[in-house]
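ugh ok fine here u go
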Amino acid sequence: MTEPTSTAGFDVRSFGAVGDGATRDGAAIQAAIDAAGRSGGGLVTVPAGTWLSAALSMRSGVELRIEAGAVLRASGEPADFPIVEARWEGVSRPVHAAFLSGSGLSRVALTGRGTIDGRGAHWWRRFRAGALSHPRPRLIAFSDCDDVLIEGLSLVDSPSWTVNPVRCTRVRVAGISIRNPADSPNTDGINPDSCRGVVIEACHISAGDDCITLKSGTEAEAAGLRLPCSDIVIANCVLEAGHGGIVIGSEMSGCVRNVVVSNCVMRGTDRGIRIKSRRGRGGTVEDIRISNIVMEGVGCPLAINLRYHCGAKGDGLVADRGHRPVGEGTPRVRRVSLSGMSARGARVAAAWIEGLPESPVEDLELRDIAIELACGEEGDPPSEPEMADGMELLRRRGFLSRNVRGLRLESVSIAGHEGPAFDFSGEAEGVLRHCRSSVRGAALVGLPEGQGMGLRLVDNEVPDGGSLLA
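structure:
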């Protein structure tokens, strides 16, 4: 991040902030930020104490440092979060302002060892009661900014999405902790949206929705605002609870490309690596490289779903498993590689891959993968591997694939599964090499009756007492 143009220091106490947890300190904190901005940039410090505040706006060149022992706490009152225009779930609309935000800024930073408390319970209660006329605040949201740094902080109880840069370049999020209750609604962790040049590293995230999600707007957003989300690095993170560990979509009309993920641990999420979209959305997900991943207790370690129905449940176009014409609204997923992954205690399926008949998932490679399904009781309830109309309820199934072209599975082992280890339907074209199942008597590969063999099987290991084909 580029250094501020001024090294001046601004202590919020010098502007009248008290920090006793009862005094409303927002005006004083904002005055300190504004003064630093007018001076050409500088360091605004929030020392130890509890600082109650309304929504705050950052300024270019300003670093807001929340020191160890400091808690910057949101007021929780809707009147303190004015209605502004911002992208929310893929389209620009009126929303409550984020607790900390900025638009059109450069060289802006949020740092320190303190805590930002969104007091989300106030908002979750109103949301569940249907008492809100606009979407809830995000905790931190920057739009159309350059050189953004968020580092070291603990972020707790966000009203909705926690960190959401939109159309920003050169963003670094490092060493932060995010803790939102597992049942809190839509409290995603870090959601870069139409951003370029993003590094997310050494973060610990436990959220009520997806932990890290890459987005790029929907078909309802103006075309000029649907910029790609590209050149993304995610490394050395621990991701817990929530619906997905690392997710792409479903808002991806502007495309998501050039993503590298490495050295991450995922624990207890519904899905691990997840890509989701649907007809009408358009956009392409491509050149995704994922390596050195450990999962524990994840429902479905890998899910790619091009019939995602959230917000479109019952829509005939989205739900149809038949062939539809290819057009501007046809999504594409291609050149996705996953290597060096182990997953223990998967509950639903080893993987669920569903492309479209007119747009199969292309060039999907899995190499050096070991997935062990959970050894649960027979009465454990089955559940959905993904969110789509007509989705079958599953329990401890293997690698399930529908409509994939250019599939490469090499040294993939699956244990503890029911049914075939690798189960294909729709278009299935590619190669399985050195793959194995440890379930005695199981079939390695399952194909629907009458389906042609578009798969090459090379040096695979048939289970004891089992067969190569179901």
